[in-house]
Request: fold
Amino acid sequence: MRKFADLHVRISEPNDEILTRMKQVAQDMGIALIGVTMPQTLVASQISTIRGISAKIRVEVATRVDLVPKDRNHLLSDLRSVRKRFEIVAVTCRSNQIATVACRDRRVDLVSFPVNSRYVRFRRSLARLCREKSLEVDITQLVEPKELPRHVVFSRLRDQVSVAKSNHVSIVLSSGADNPLMLRGPREIAAIGMQLGLGDVEGLESVSEIPFEIVERNRAKLSPNHVTIGVKLMKVKKPVG
Amino acid sequence: MGRKPSRYLLVKLLVEGTVPDNLLIQSVTESIMNLFGETGLSETAPRLIAYNEKESIGILRCSRDSLEKLRAAIAMISKIDKKPVGVYVKAVSGTSKRLKSKTLT
Reply:
């Protein structure tokens, strides 16, 4: 049976009550994994505490950080500090310079392009730089468009999806919810993906296989047994005597 | 001419308080109109079959070929009568019998 994930749940202050409610609603919707955005300043012990909140509810929590860098140097220094603490690293590209680095850097998992930006669009040249990373499309911007009319948001997202598809860049659809009422069922999110130009199988994969692949790949990399890609420590020989 | 095949969706509302059935079907219809226009609405032909206002759970019927359109339209609903809501589909069936037992109990 297909397992579903929503990699973008925004919680301003991760506390017991909000996270428990989010997890309950997610479980009701059939979501098995949520990626919770956390402040960049959290340390490892705080992250593990958050992960343990309401562990009885069978919804996994993946730690995620959203980077909105000012320039390329800022992005590189942020990546150095966050990559080893968070399972998902997402970058919002607000300029071409940032987009080029984010699309090329292997430490970035998800790239997103704001629909209201005049300066940067997800073009073919950027798509061709993307290796082992996905384009993220948040449906919140469609459900509650802020600056632009919905049809413009639709059109820009359709462009992004079309460029990604033609350059074999995987797409992750997520809710971008900041409260439980903004969470959406995974099949509903996939249905919106179909309106954006994805096929029915592609739509479902973008809320199931692809997000799980990202999280599993990063969990393997963050485990202490990981040496490099394709090499991991299986067993440590105990010293004799 | 044979009967058109339908799909029945068990929909759940996340809302503070209650939402009457007429407002629910009105917002679903509006959402389909906004996304797909009148042609899309006529193809989807949504209808509220049963609704439990207290539990905020109901059964919607649509044509089989328009299931994904209805799902997308449902996901777009974020407010009903100026109240913030979340709507999601709990189950889909080809007949209403099984879903009715879940709604009305």
Q: What stands out?
A: Chain A has a mean pLDDT of 91. Chain A is about 40% helix and 20% strand. The interface with chain B takes residues 25, 28-29, 139, 142-144, 150, 180-185, 187-189, 191-192, 194-195, 200 of chain A (CB under 8 Å). Residues 4-232 of chain A form a domain with the TIM Barrel fold (CATH 3.20.20.140).
